[in-house]
Structures are given as C-alpha cells and as structure tokens.
Amino acid sequence: MIMYILILSLILVLGIFTLASKDLLHSVIALSAISMLSALLFTILRAPDVAITEAAVGAGVSTVIFVWAIRHTQRRDKEES
C-alpha cells in the first residue's frame, strides 16, 4: 500500500513539475519519468502487457518524437519578442 502511494505521489509531483517548467526539454524528461513510473505501477498491479506497452510507447517513442521536435524548433528569447 505504501508503495502505491509513493509511486502515485511521484507521478503527481512530476506532473506538476511538467506543467510548471519553463524548459521544454525538462518537461519531456519529466513526462518520460511519469511513463516509467506508470509502467512500474502496472507491473506491480500484475499487468505486464500494459507495462511493456507504456514503457515502449510512453517513455520510448513519445520521448524521441518530443526531443526531435524540440531540436528542430528555434528558441525565442524575451529580447526578440
């Protein structure tokens, strides 16, 4: 029971950090961590097929796509706008 509360609390904290972060790369890394924690939670709940899918798609493919998109955009500073 304590493990569930700890994992869910970490997911909540990372979700708030993702929304509050000014740096997009930090937000993507936090989203990837949320996906890995979700996969861990699914494993604990004995749903290994869902855990593998979450780890592969949520933490793997989505992270690569987001980082690729961030790298191909230009950053605007406050002086430019």
Automatic annotation (TrEMBL):
Main localization category: membrane
Pfam families in the record: MbhD
Membrane topology: Multi-pass membrane protein
ATP-binding as UniProt keyword: no
Subcellular location: Cell membrane
Keyword match Cell membrane: yes
Record's keyword terms, sorted: Cell membrane, Membrane, Transmembrane, Transmembrane helix
InterPro entries: MrpA_C/MbhD, Nuo/plastoQ_OxRdtase_6_NuoJ
This protein's GO CC annotations: plasma membrane
Domain MrpA C-terminal/MbhD: 10-75
Chain ranges passing through the membrane: 6-21, 28-45, 51-70
The protein's name in its UniProt record: MrpA C-terminal/MbhD domain-containing protein
Species, as recorded: bioreactor metagenome
Lineage: unclassified sequences, metagenomes, ecological metagenomes
